[in-house]
Fold this protein.
Amino acid sequence: MLESIRVTEKLHWPEQELAKKSILNAEESLILDSKRSISHLSPGILKDIFTTGTSSYNVLLQSKEEKRHHAQKQSSSCSKRCRKPSKAPSSSRSRDLRKMKSPVLALSSGPWCCLERRPAVSVASSVSNPVKFTHDISVTGNSLVLPPKPKTKAKRRHFATLPKPKLQPQPQLSRSFEKGDDFSGKRFCILTAIKPTNLEKEKLRFFRSDYTYNPQFEYANPSLPGVLARHSNASDRFLKQSINIMELTLQKYGSYEKFEQATGGSLLSKTRIWSHVRKYMMKEGCVGEIVVHLTEDLLSRASMTVVNGCPTLTINVSTAREHWLEGMLRHEIGTHYFRGINNLQQPWNSWTGRKKHELKPNNPTEEGLASIHSVLFRKDPFLWRAALLYYTVYRASQMSFCELFRDIGKFVKDPNTRWDYCVRAKRGWTDTSQPGCFSKDQVYLDGILQILRYRQTIDFHLLTALGKVSYEDVDRLKGLAVTENMRVPHFLQDHGRYMEHLEKIMEVNELTDRELRDLIY
């Protein structure tokens, strides 16, 4: 759920495996709810639940997880073959000692899905009697080997890394294709196809040329021309608004870096990120439902995906600021996660159901709503990031890579950050000396302005409860929807306060109802 100009906030292409995968531990125990587990659902349902369809990293994460899972299986098989059989006990004393040994959980970097709350835990193993743990954890799987004891004492955290049980085959992490993108009977993933394979090489060449060389990108799975063409038409509908939003920010703060420091606060350590995330999940009542990753190798600030049947939140630690982190959590959990969970209960929870009920695309509503929630309670809720993404895509449709790099310099000074935004707008193209863009990043500002235009008539509670639907479909679908036990984020409970902050967003970004009515009708 694209969601920025400092070096510390660079938009990285992922190059390494994620270093940490954890599940929240509330009050020193995991809340395990079998009714909320989605690992039993079919991949066809899971593939579209949480992903926004706008982050290339979602797809890259999937491929890396598959490779890692395969490597872990091979390593596990080898370990079992090479394990020496234990000697038979020679006395009753040795038999007693063997019975006293408890199976020890070997730490694993794989995600682990929460299942059910229990007062005590039984772990299946080769031991004759099950061993009970006092912690509130349920573990299934084969017996595990005792790992070497670390020399240094590990710090206690609110998150615990747990072994990965046997799970169903990994579902598709992001929307693989849209109607018409099926090629030779195989699902075609545009987000995989548009990631250049020679990115670092071309970046080095570009910087050595003093920003005069237009990168020539290569792709492992080149996209079909017809598919890319559908995402190459940039709009100028909100260009004036995007420029005005960025200029207002610079007029007040002088530079984006100063705005970021003044309103975002300092960057958070990993320990403080854990604490903030745990507190937010407790407010939303979803502790133990979501696997959490911390990484620096992420294209966006965060992403909500499904990995091995588990909702997975990946956070870019290089962009996690004290006063902005909760906005990111409202974006990813309060919007994408809750709308995805609610969508599972609706008659339109599949492509067949959406077609039957003639639903409009969930974007730009999905990303527009999430982006509003990102800035909802900020001191100065400037829509800077959405505006810059919109502007960059439009200019990319008219300019070469070098020209675009120079053009956005009036808003972004750091060359590495400018490179990232230009790559994002030019991804999918081979010869970047030609005008052309990948237009999906315009969806954020587009969605924001449409929602603000109709904010007085939209039922925001229903917009979340109905799942992955457009605001235009809410009135028509509410009579068909399942609304019992739907989950709505805490910040939507106070409707008056919510509406006050929407008005503040209008005011700070100098948007007027008359202006929006003229643009959107």
Summary: Residues 56-82 form the longest helix (27 residues). The two ends are 26 Å apart (CA to CA).
